[in-house]
Write a structure and sequence with these properties.
The protein is α+β, with helices and mostly antiparallel strands and 327 residues long. Among the domains are: 15-105, Immunoglobulin-like (Sandwich), CATH 2.60.40; 111-187, Sandwich (Immunoglobulin-like), CATH 2.60.40.10; 188-231. It is built from four helices and 17 strands. The protein has helices spanning 195-243, 266-269, 278-286, 316-319; strands at 15-18, 23-25, 37-42, 45-50, 56-58, 70-72, 81-88, 94-105, 111-117, 120-126, 134-139, 142-143, 150-154, 163-170, 180-181, 189-190, 193-194. Strands 1-8-7-3-4-5 form a six-stranded mixed β-sheet, with no helix packed on it. A hairpin with a 2-residue loop joins strand 11 (134-139) and strand 12 (142-143). The relative contact order is 0.08.
C-alpha cells in the first residue's frame, strides 16, 4: 500500500518511515497510461525515467509498479529527502507533477514490561513517543487482538512458557521488540510447575490411589470371607467327629481278630442317645442280642483254660452255736 501523508512531530515531512520499512511513494493519479512518460527524481537527481514507448532509460523495472508508484524495498537514512515526479502525455504535454518529503527515522526499539498486580498480569509496551500510538502485540509469535499500549490478563489465562512482543504500528512504525517471557512471580504455578499440569497430575495420582484402595479393600473382604468359610468348615468337621462313634480295633489284645460290630439301625442313629424314639426303644427290646462267635483257635497257641464253677465249702459255723455255748 502506498504511504499517505499525515502530520507528525516533524512538520517538514510528508512521509515518514523507519529503517528497514517497505515504501511506496504514490503519484496521486488514478490511472497511468502505457504511452505516458514518467520521471522520478530524488533530491533533484533522476533515479527513474521511462519514455512514452515503455523503454526504461534510467533505473530498473522493479523501482516502480504498474501504477507508477516509486518503490523502496528496505528504507535507510540514505532515502531521506525530496522525491519529485513528472508525467507527460504522448504529445509531450505535462499531465501531472508533484513532490513529497520523506523522513526515515531511526525509531528506538520498544520494550515489553510485565508486572503483577492483585492476581492480574499487566503487560505494557514502553516507547519514546506517547501520542496517538497504535500497537501490535504478539504472543508466542502469534498476533493478538490487543492494539493498546497496556493490557491485562488473569494469571490462570497464561502459561509459564508464554512470551510477548510488541510493535508500534502508527504513527511511525517501529521494529518488533525483543521477546520477553512472563516473570516467575507472575506465573500461575503449583509447586513450581504449571498449575493446569499439576492439577492434571494430582488428579491422575488421586484416581490411581482410589483404585488401589478399592483393590485392597476388595482383597481384605475376600480374605475375611475365606477365613470365615474355613472356620465354618472346621466347626462342621468337629461336629461330625463328635456324632460319629469311634471305630473298634480289628484285633484284640492277643492279636486275634475282633468280632464284627453289630450294625445300628439308621433310624435309631439319627436321634440323640438321651432321647431315643419310641419305635427304636420297642424294637431294641424285642431284638435279642446276638452273641459273637468264638475267636478262631490257633494251632500253635494253647487254648485258654475254661472257667470252672466255684465250689462251695460246707459252712460248719452255721451249725455251731455261740462261742460261749461251745465246749
Amino acid at each position: 500500500m502506498p504511504l499517505q501523508s499525515f502530520s507528525t512531530d516533524c512538520n517538514a515531512c510528508d512521509l515518514t518511515a523507519t529503517v528497514g520499512d517497505y515504501l511506496e511513494i504514490s503519484l496521486g493519479l488514478e490511472t497511468l497510461n502505457k504511452d505516458d512518460e514518467l520521471k522520478w527524481t530524488h533530491n533533484q537527481m533522476v533515479i527513474f525515467k521511462r519514455n512514452n514507448k515503455g523503454i526504461i532509460m534510467k533505473g530498473k523495472k522493479e523501482n516502480v509498479n504498474e501504477k507508477g508508484h516509486f518503490i523502496i524495498q528496505n528504507a535507510d537514512k540514505t532515502h531521506d529527502g525530496t522525491y519529485s515526479f513528472e508525467v507527460y502525455k504522448r504529445n509531450g504535454t505535462l499531465k501531472a507533477s508533484g513532490k513529497k518529503e520523506l523522513c526515515v527515522q531511526m525509531l528506538a526499539k520498544p520494550g515489553v514490561n510485565i508486572t503483577c498486580d492483585k492476581g492480574k498480569v499487566v503487560v505494557k509496551c514502553d516507547t519514546q513517543s506517547k501520542k496517538d500510538q497504535i500497537f501490535i502485540w504478539y504472543r508466542n509469535g502469534g498476533k493478538m487482538k490487543e492494539d493498546t499500549q497496556t493490557f491485562q490478563k488473569n494469571k490462570n489465562e497464561l502459561k509459564i512458557t508464554d512470551q510477548f512482543e510488541c510493535v508500534v504500528e502508527k504513527p511511525v512504525k517501529s521494529h518488533r521488540s525483543d521477546t520477553v517471557p512472563v516473570p516467575e512471580k507472575c506465573k500461575y504455578t503449583l509447586f513450581g510447575f504449571d498449575f493446569r499440569i499439576m492439577v492434571g497430575v494430582l488428579a491422575t495420582g488421586g484416581f490411581l490411589v482410589l483404585v488401589l484402595l478399592i483393590v485392597l479393600v476388595t482383597c481384605a473382604c475376600q480374605s475375611c470371607k475365606r477365613q470365615e468359610k474355613r472356620m465354618q468348615d472346621e466347626d462342621e468337621l468337629r461336629l461330625n467327629n463328635f456324632h460319629t462313634p469311634p471305630q473298634r480295633s480289628k484285633q484284640t489284645a492277643r492279636g486275634q481278630p475282633a468280632p464284627p460290630v453289630p450294625q445300628e439301625d439308621p433310624e435309631v442313629s439319627n436321634y440323640e442317645v438321651d432321647d431315643p424314639p419310641p419305635k427304636a426303644q420297642s424294637r431294641a427290646k424285642n431284638q435279642q442280642r446276638v452273641r459273637p462267635p468264638p475267636p478262631p483257635v490257633d494251632e500253635d497257641e494253647s487254648p485258654p483254660p475254661l472257667p470252672q464253677p466255684r465250689k462251695k465249702a460246707p459252712n460248719t459255723k452255721r451249725n455251731q452255736g455261740p462261742l460261749y455255748m461251745q465246749p
